[in-house]
Amino acid sequence: MRLFQIFLVFALLVTITLTVLDTPQNPAGETSAVSSAKPTNELWQAPNESLLLTEANADEIKYGRELIQNTALYLGPNGTVKQISNGMNCQNCHLDAGTKAWGNNYAAVYSTYPKFRERSGALETIPKRVNDCFERSLNGQSLDTNSKEMLAIVAYIKWLGVGLNKGDKPAGSGIVEVPFLNRPASPEKGQLVYKAKCESCHQANGEGLLNADKNTYAFPPLWGEHSYNSGAGLYRLSRFAGYVKANMPLGASYNNPILSDEEAWDVAAFVNTQKRPSKDLSKDWPNIAGKPIDHPFGPFSDGFSEEQHKYGPFEPIKKKRNELKNKKTT
Ligand code: HEC
Ligand code: HEC
C-alpha cells in the first residue's frame, strides 16, 4: 500500500515535470515586451522587471514607480516630500503601477506625447499631463517640472514604453470603451449596483476606508472631499464606466469582467452625481466643438443639452457630430 502511494506521487511528479518542459516558455524573461512576433490580439504587457535593473537610471525609474504606487506617503496631506495632493495614489486609478491591460495603464504615454489636447487647446508634454492628474484626479497642486519627483515619474513612464515606436498604441492601453446604452445612464439603478457590489469596500458614504495609519487608503474614496474633482477624467461617464468595467469590483479584468455594460454605465452615473470638490474649468476646452461627447458641462456646439451630455444617450450626439463634420468637409 505504502509503496503504491510513493509510486503514485512519483508518477505525478514526472507528469508535471514533462508538462512544464513541454510548455513553450514565455519569452518575456529574456526579451521583454519588445518582441514583435506577438499575435495582434494579445494585450500589452509591461517590460520585464529584469530589464529595469539594466538601465543606467534604474534607481530613478524605481523611485518614479514608488511615487505612482504610494503617492500619499510622499506627496499626500502628510507627505514626507511635499503636501500637494488628496491622499489618493496614482495607482488607485492606474492599476498595478500603470501596467495592467485596460487598467488605465501608461503603455502609450511615451509613444504618443507630446500631443495636442483639446482640453487645454495646446501641445501637452508628459509633465503637463501628469500635473493635470495632480490638479484634478488628486485634487491638488502641480509638481515643479524639474523636481526630482517629476523627473522620476517621467523616467518610469518612459521606461514602460520601451520597445514601442512613436505613435504606437498597443492593444489594451488606457481605458476600454464600453458600448453606448440606448437610454440615459440611471443614477437610481446605479445606486443598487453600488450597494450590492461596491459599498463593502468604498463604504456607504463613498469616502473610502483609511488604513490603521490614518494616512493612506485601504479603499480609496469615490466621492466626498478627498476624492477626484469635477475636472478629472473619471468625472466623465465613459471614463468611469470603462475603468470599472475592466477593473471593478477589485479582481475584475478585461477578460473576466464582473459588471455588465449597463451596470458599469449606471454605477458611473450614480457615483458622479454625488458631492465632490469642484474645479474652475473656465480655461478648459477653448474650442467648444472639441469637447468629448460625455463632457458634462456646456456650452456645446452640437445643440444637445448638458443633461444628455452627462448621462446619454450618446449615440445621437455622436451621429449629429459626424454629420456636422461631414458637412464641413464637403
Ligand atoms: C482618480 C483617478 C486618477 C488618479 C488618482 C490619477 N489619474 Fe491619471 N488619469 C486618470 C484618467 C481617468 C485619465 C484619462 C484616461 C483616458 O482618457 O483614457 C488619466 C490620464 C493620465 C495620463 C495620460 C494617459 C494617456 O494615455 O494619455 C497620465 C500620464 C496620468 N494620468 C498620470 C497620472 C499620475 C502620475 C498620477 C498620480 C500623480 C495620476 N495620473 C493619478 C485618472 C487618474
Ligand atoms: C473588494 C474591494 C472593492 C470593491 C468591492 C470595489 N472596489 Fe473599487 N477599488 C478598490 C481598491 C483597493 C481600489 C484601489 C486599487 C489600487 O490602488 O490598486 C479601488 C479603486 C477604485 C476606483 C479608482 C479610485 C477612486 O477611488 O476613484 C474606482 C472609480 C472604483 N474603485 C470604483 C468601484 C466601483 C464602482 C465598484 C463597484 C462596482 C468597486 N469599485 C468595487 C477596492 C474595491
Key words describing this protein structure:
330 residues, mainly alpha, binds heme C, 16 helices
Structure description:
By secondary structure, the protein is mainly alpha-helical. It folds into 2 domains: 52-160, Cytochrome Bc1 Complex, Chain D, domain 2 (Orthogonal Bundle), CATH 1.10.760; 187-329, Cytochrome c-like domain (Cytochrome Bc1 Complex, Chain D, domain 2, Orthogonal Bundle), CATH 1.10.760.10. Helix content is 42%, strand content 3%. It has 16 helices and 4 strands. The strands form 2 sheets. It has a two-stranded antiparallel sheet. β1 (115-117) and β2 (122-124) form a beta hairpin. α13 (237-247) crosses α14 (261-271). Residues 14-38 have low confidence and may be disordered. Bound molecules: heme C (2 copies). One heme C is lined by residues 89, 91-93, 95, 193, 197-198, 200-202, 219-222, 228, 234, 243-244, 248-250, 259, 267.
